[in-house]
What does this fold into?
Amino acid sequence: MLICFPMQHSLSAYWDTNAVPLFIIMNAITSYFMFSLQHWKVPALCLLLLTAFPHNTFATTHNILAISFFITAGYAMLKSRRFRTLFAIYLLGIPIAMINLLYGEIVSILCLCVFHGALLYKYHKILIKKKTFHEFYLDN
It folds into this structure.
């Protein structure tokens, strides 16, 4: 959205642009992914609901759900006890958001993406080791 559309003051403001289908699809897919993860169901629900309540029509509800999403996502990151540095950077999104909401959201969302990417990479490495173990010891 940032590349293809004019910069807005927040990610939710893209609801008022032609990017709204991309905004909805992106949040729905992200919610679907989060629903499949342990400890991420509440952030997934918050994200899905904030998408259902556009900021221009339901400003208060949308903002409460957005804040709830970032708080519960941060809590889920903290609860995982992995990649603590990413959580610290995630928290940097708060003061940045006070200066520029869009940049604060981007910092926090990038941290969430890197966090989940790192977890997927770690899980993939475990599966490769497990597969190699099974191929070597059990298939022979």
The chain has a mean pLDDT of 89. DSSP finds five helices and no strands in the chain.
